[in-house]
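Before the break, one more example. Copy the sequence into your notebook; we will annotate it together after we see the structure.
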Amino acid sequence: MNAMSTLAEIASLLRDASRVLALTHIAPDGDAIGSLLGFGWLLRAAWRQAAGQPGQAGRAIVLACADLPPAQLQWLPGVNEVITSPAAGPWDVVVGLDASDGLRLGSAFRPADYGATPVAILDHHVTNLHFGNLNYVNTSAAATAQIVVDLADALDAPLGREAAVCLLTGLVTDTLGFRTNNVTPQVMATAMRLMQAGASLSEITERTLNHRPLNVLRLWGLALSQMRLTRQVAWVSITQQMRQGVGAPATGDGGLVSQLINAPEALLAAVFSETVDGKVEIGFRAKSGYDVSQIALSLGGGGHPQAAGCTIAGPLAAAEGRVLPMLFQATG
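Here is what the structure looks like once it is written out:
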């Protein structure tokens, strides 16, 4: 594990770079894609600020994620720039956003190809393994998007509307509309700043938290009809057959796990989702006072005390048999 770095150190590295690769985690959510895109907009703005200085021409940033952004985020400014398989390099800096370990960055992250290229990590998860050469992990931040706003200040980069929209999307989605217990006055001040830069809170909330495609709602119906509750743990399983039957996307639960934890009878909730390659993605949620981050970490994943996830070997029945006893034990 490498020591913590400062945003000033990372900003200095980025200012001098000509080719930057930025990555975010597999099965990306709003904070992952919002932070990735916002970072791209801000770094370009910082480079433009220095356009009159020698050596500024020919700069480029590549934005990558092993999985394409989900349909509900396709409206974000610059989303079409995200690629799934970036070139091996050469890069001056590789930046990992919103990922607690290298495995979460998936196949787009290939450290063996980077040689001596420094890897900088920007993240807010308590389970972060500090796997970069430079690591800025602020667990008091409500979202990685909040950290990217702080990086903008370290870069002396102006907050344009495009960056603000992407970054406010990260804040809104990771806090469920500012309803999680890590929302502080500093978080709200960051949100206000992004709104002042041109981001519409009402539009972002409507697009990210209120919209659910019909096929996702049908998938929820199939899953909820089989929901189980044992020892104050609510869980459902989603098979590929269920997805195909309603024409739902091959990955993701559309936020279903966040609905399960709303049941007053549940202290913990989990959604087990079968992947196309036979693995099982698991999303966890917990009521205040309970912690699912360490369960996810022990299974090779990560996250926050109240929201975490991982991917483990299948089949579904084996995954349930392995994970459910851990959840039952956590509820006491």
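The chain has a mean pLDDT of 93. The chain is about 35% helix and 15% strand. Try to locate both features in your own notes.
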